[in-house]
Amino acid sequence: MPRLGGLIASFESIGLDVHASIDIPGGVAEPSVGVTVYRVVQECLTNAYRHGEGTATVDVRAHDGRICVTVENLIGSSHRSSDSGSGLGLVGMRERVESSGGRLTIDSDDGRFRVRAEFSPMGAVVT
């Protein structure tokens, strides 16, 4: 998942402060899971840029035989974009994660917007 560094850099270049911790050994995940992780981080950072405030934190790591992704940011009082969005990005993200055999949780406790995704490195098991 080396492309995550480039993705994060692209958001930093447009003014989003991102604190990232990426700890995934190379080759640990099926390519389809890697793409899903990338898309989850991309959607979360897009939302953080449009609707959040302050630093967005990204944590991607292998833990207990799973790949865990957590992205969070403060919920903003003002929007950088006049487009409030359709909300379909979150729906699409959930569908993508579930189609990869993963689980997605979204919450907004304590003024923070938090997305967590967890996957098997092998993705969905087809029987």
Descriptors:
alpha+beta; 3 helices; 32% strand; 5-stranded mixed sheet; single chain; 127 residues
How far is it from the N-terminal to the C-terminal residue, by CA?
Answer: 27 Å
Low-confidence runs of at least 5 consecutive residues: none
- Largest beta sheet: what is the strand line-up? 1-2-3-5-4
Number of helices: 3
Compute the gyration radius: what is it?
Answer: 14 Å
Which class do the helix and strand fractions yield?
Answer: alpha+beta
Main sheet summary:
5 strands, mixed
Shape: globular
Overall strand count: 5
> Percentage of helical residues?
25-40%
Q: State which percent range the strand residues make up.
A: 25-35%
Q: Would you list the SSEs in sequence order as H and E?
A: HEHEEHEE
Q: What number is the mean pLDDT? A: 86
What's the quick description here?
The protein is of the alpha+beta class and 127 residues long. Helix content is 35%, strand content 32%.
Description:
Helix 1 (3-13) runs parallel beside helix 2 (31-51). This protein is an alpha+beta fold. Helices cover 35% and strands 32% of the residues. It is globular and about 40 Å long. The mean pLDDT is 86. It is built from three helices and five strands. Strands 1-2-3-5-4 form a five-stranded mixed beta sheet, with helices on one face. A hairpin with a 2-residue loop joins strand 2 (52-63) and strand 3.
